[in-house]
Every structure is written in C-alpha cells, then in structure tokens.
Amino acid sequence: MRWKSFAVAAVFVMFAHTAAADDEVDLELVLLADASRSIDNAEILFQRQGYANAITHPEVLDAIDQGFRQRIAVTYVEWGDATSQEVVVPWTIIEDQASAQAFAAALLDAPRLAFGPNAIGNALAAAQALIEENSIDAFRRVIDFSGDSANSFGGIPIAVARASALSADIVINGLAILCRQDDCSGRPNVYDLEEAFAKSIVGGPGSFVVTVDGPSSFADAVRRKLILEIANLDQRHRQ
Asked: What's 17-231's CATH class?
C-alpha cells in the first residue's frame, strides 16, 4: 500500500535523531491518535500534551533503557476519514532525554493535519504501511491505536485491516478514551468501548486495552501504556 505522508519541514529541524535506514531498535511504535470530527482543536492539543509528557517521563525513559538495544523508533500519526491519515512527527529514534524532548517539542509545535469521520480500517492500514515501508530493524512492531469510538464509516473494513496487520506480526494495542472533559459521563451510552476495542481492534501476542475516563487520568494512562509496550509487559485485556 502506498500512502501519502504530509510533513512540516520546520518542525523536524530540531530532531536529535530522525530514524534512518538500518537503524536497530527494540521497538517500532506507531502512535495512532484520533483526530476525527468528534475531536476539536483543544482536544487535539490535550492529547498531544499527554503523549509529550509521557514520552519524556523518567519511567518511560527507564523502560527504554532496560531494552537490549536501549532505543525505540516512534512516529505520531493522526487519523480521521478514509483520505486523512497524517504523519505529525515522522519516525524518530528515542534513546535519551534529549531525543525524547525533541520528539515532544515537534509534536506540540505541529499544526492539526487530520479531519473527517472515523475510518479506523484506513488508519490501521496506514500504520502498517509506515512500519513495513521503513528500513528500521526492530525486535517488535506495535500499532498504538487511540480513539473515543469503535465505529468506522467507510473505507477499509476494520476486520480486514486488523487481520492484515496481525498477519504481518504487528501487535495492535488500544487506548479507549471514554472522556476528555470533567463534565462528561465518561462512557458511550450504547456500548462498552473497552470491550469493543478488545473484540474488534486490538490483537496479537500480549495485546491490551488501557482506558481513559477523564482528563486527570489521560497522561497516566498514556504513560502506563507506553511502559507496557516498551517493556512488553502483560495487561488485563489480552488477545
């Protein structure tokens, strides 16, 4: 699958180490973040801040340092409709505080790029393409999918994209966002979002779902999820 990426050159000048051919890492990680029409610009910034705080947290850096190669490759992608899966920060090697800070700064400085109704299958397919079309050598490959819905409107069916990624030995984990605001109830009225993620989206050895039920828990949930992924630890929702 060929996929058009969109980047803002000025954002990337500050990178400590943008991933290049033949980089060897413990983990390739696509952070696949919801930027669909249910997410406003304030929530986009809120999500990015949570990931920026998490990637620079000492516990996350310590988890990276415990790996065999002591480095991971990360890219941040925002997804919307079937034509809108956009690279916000390209593949970058995170191996120390400086490289983590550079990634976080680039993430917070970039403009919003993705829009439109949910096309989860296309988002997963785009993430798979990013993993398969680079020249990074990793022990493990993971798609970290986040969203506030398991519904998809058009494009590639979720089941097809999920099966393709799993057949390529790519693990899919989930961040189920039940609530971003202090005044919301925190759960979809019609269905259990965590269960929908577990049944329809996540998969692969050791896969899991982490839940966010409010603004105060977002950064903690992202940090915990990153540590689980980097250290390849178990979590209660297994597939």
From this structure: alpha beta
